[in-house]
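Closing statement on the S-adenosylmethionine sub-project.
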Amino acid sequence: MPSIEPSERIKERTFRQHKQNKVNQAGRRGGAPTRIVRCAARNGRGRPAQMAMVTLAPPGARALDAFTHHGGFALALARGGGDVLAIDENPAAAERAAANARRNELANMRVECGNAFDLLRAFEGRGERFDVVVLDPPALAKRGGGPQGLTTAARAYKELVLRGARLTRAGGLLVACSCSGRVTRAHWDEICADAIADAGRTAQVLSRAGAGRDHPELFGVPETAHLKVWTFRIL
Ligand SMILES: C[S@@+](CC[C@H](N)C(=O)[O-])C[C@H]1O[C@@H](n2cnc3c(N)ncnc32)[C@H](O)[C@@H]1O
């Protein structure tokens, strides 16, 4: 009988090899070793997800990009001509998003520096509605956070998606992302389904996207499938 390597060891070896390849590639280019990063803007998730979503958004859509970073989703949406509000709590990120809007002459894109959780609650209180809501928070379930960490993160994700669903006009789009490796695709489905139901809304799933082709998932290493970009039509 051939000996079969336990799957955990195969996974660990493949992941180690993948990281080493990235360091080697960076060395050959003469750059600093590439860290495997988890933020959409830096790892290639953004572009295909943004393109897919922009083709679905109606021209002139009023949009909210609640965790904008440097404005990836917001810039793509603002090209449609509608009013776009981009939020980030990091002043440097918000400033960069605003600079990107100016550079692209998108006067219809406004950037606000603030906490998305608080602002979403405030918008809901004021009865605001958007045609498109994008929620792309940082990884809320940290590695090594234990079962309690995962439960807390799931609760925070659910709150975000619930408020996002309430803020989306009937027929509008809700783009719900998670880049937590600990939240599986099935778990993300569950969190979104719960949140949308508790918001009193129903939804169609228009797409379930992940990493871009320039940052593909390593087959056999589920942790590298951490990017989840679900686009719903909220009814
Ligand atoms: C995953 S990145 C967003 C990437 C972006 N959507 C893109 O495609 O380039 C998460 C961003 O959320 C911001 N952020 C973290 N916590 C926040 C909060 N409570 N409120 C608003 N922004 C927050 C971070 O500063 C970071 O820029």
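Residues 39-41, 46, 67-70, 72-73, 87-90, 93, 115-117, 136-138, 179 surround S-adenosylmethionine (CB under 6 Å). With this model delivered, the sub-project is considered complete and its resources will be redirected to Aim 3.
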